[in-house]
Amino acid sequence: MTARREASAPPALPGYEHVRTLGLGGFADVFLYRQDLPRREVAVKVLLAGSLDDEVRQRFQTEANLMAQLSHHPSIVTVYQASIAADGRPYLVMEYCSRPGLAERYRVERIAVAEVLRIGVRLASAVETAHRAGILHRDIKPANVLTTDFGWPALADFGIAATTGHGAGVAVGMSIPWSPPELLAEHPRGDERSDVYSLGATLYSLLAGRTPFEIPGGQNGAQQLVARIERQPLPSTGRDDVPPQLQAVLERSMAKVPALRFGSAAELGRALQQVEAELRLPVTPLDLLDEGVPGPDAGGPVIDVADATRLRSIVAIPDAQPAPAGEQEPTRVRGPVTVDAQRARPGFVAPPEQAPELPSLGEPEPVEDSSARRGRTVAAVASAAVVLAAIVAIATAATSGRDEPRPGDTDFAQEPVTHQAVVPAPHTLKGERAQDGSVRFTWVNPDPQPDDAYLWSVLQVTGEPEIERIEEPAVTIPAARAGDEVCIEVSIVRSDGRATAQPAEACA
Q1: From CA 330, how far away is CA 350, in angstroms rounded?
Q2: Of 5, 116, 120, 231, which residue has the fewest beta carbons closer than 10 angstroms?
Q3: Cβ within 8 Å of residue 340, ≥6 positions away
Q4: What is the dihedral of CA 496, 500, 503, 504, to 10 degrees?
Q5: Pseudo-torsion of CA 64, 69, 75, 81, nearest 10°?
Q6: Which of helix, strand or coil describes residue 478?
Q7: Distance between CA atoms of residues 371 and 323, nearest Å
């Protein structure tokens, strides 16, 4: 066993006081500092003195720039400052996440399914935000997900990230247990779907308490893991409380062939939202920037009507007692005003004789110098009541036919969550070799639907296979392609584009 190295000496940073060491890494150490102004605790990542070659410096600078671009996202660690210490070591000043990270939890704690779903949706929105900015993370794993003081997951360590442009995706220093097959090939190539795989593998680890292809008590070296990642189907998490639809989402996100995975992190997030809805859990919102359309009268963006249907649970506040003399009167909350759904349509204006009568908010008390100000306050409250009533009515019309929010619900999805059946895998897949050396594979569709088709490909040890679409449940592979042994995988694809999460595999 290699001896644990000592932490490097924390640098003296003007305006910061060193507190303690937080973690040790291959290229950098992380320390807890107390910042003088503004007063707060921060995490400072400092490059090791022996790692100051040009390549490492460039990676460190890239990490600082990329994280700064994404720091506005609530599930990405915020970077406050980047600079060079007096001893020449570059450092990053970052948000200090005080709670245990996912790496500290997943092997020692049985994390609830509901929490894993919440973490998954929030991380999916963080990864999607990075992708929309043209950035691949390339090293998503439990150790790179911290936990904020408020319990939110925070994606960190963009040290080996790359842009999504031409030439991107070459693997550098990735972590094998959470890496997709295409990044383990002789000539690794990856794209957004590679991050989707790693995110799915991370969620699997949270549920299973181990890495996806790890065999407890077995041989789990790099060579064994790579072989399983490339060839073996994803095993079950081993938990009875993990529903089949969640297992199917994990299997699709970690499909061997990138084309069979979710096409984006946002799609994975929506699939996790659907599982939440089917389990009757509060649906976690995807935190993505909306692209608003400027309105005709104002220069700012207009909120989409669909986004206006997002509701938060109403907190009931009891009627306040009159405030003692000399103290400010507390705000009083009245019940919502019911508005007919017909009136909730965008652009509807009620005739004067049909306009709803608002409940009286009381007459303003005549006070010497503050009467005008109090009158303006009452008018503002009345206007707010009208806006609140309209929003509630829009939400009621838009969500008719859906379950009512339950106590404790916090957010509903920004986009409709549809309930779709899981597409099954073909069964009885088998191959028979003919005398000419060709192999004919046949299979059975357990749930045939109109316009079903099939996606199939020859499994390869490295590289990305060529996927072909056929209409019949059979395919013949010529002798020139069959060789001594040939293995294929087959998925069912519906007319709406949904496909089997875990393809069937067979060899002949």
Answers
A1: 33
A2: 5
A3: 393
A4: -100
A5: 40
A6: coil
A7: 18
Distance of alpha carbon 421 from alpha carbon 188, whole angstroms: 34
To the question of whether residue 45 is assigned a binding role by annotation, the answer is yes
Distance between CA atoms of residues 491 and 503, nearest Å = 5
CA 119, CA 113: separation in Å to the nearest integer?
10
Reading the block at residue 25, the tokens are 């890494």
The DSSP output letter for 454 is E
Considering only CA atoms, which of 77, 141, 81 is closest in space to residue 106? 141
Residue 174: strand, helix, or coil: coil
Higher pLDDT, 37 or 327: 37
pLDDT band for 161, please (50, 70, 90 cuts): low
Q: Which residues are catalytic?
A: 138
Measured distance between the N- and C-terminal CA atoms of the chain, rounded to whole angstroms: 43
**Is the backbone peptide bond immediately before 243 cis, with ω within 30 degrees of 0?**
no
Assign 315 a pLDDT band (cuts: 50, 70, 90). Answer: very low
**Residues 219, 155: Cα–Cα separation, whole Å:** 30
Residue 488 has pLDDT above 60, yes or no: yes
Provide the angle, in degrees to the nearest 10, between the axes of the packed helices 192-208 and 244-253: 140
* pLDDT above 70 for 313: no
In contact, 140 and 202? CB cutoff 8 Å: yes
- DSSP secondary structure of 73-127: STTBPPEEEEEE-TTS-EEEEEE---B--HHHHTTTS---HHHHHHHHHHHHHHH
Q: Which domains does the chain have, with CATH numbers?
A: 16-95 (3.30.200.20), 102-278 (1.10.510.10), 427-507 (2.60.40.10)
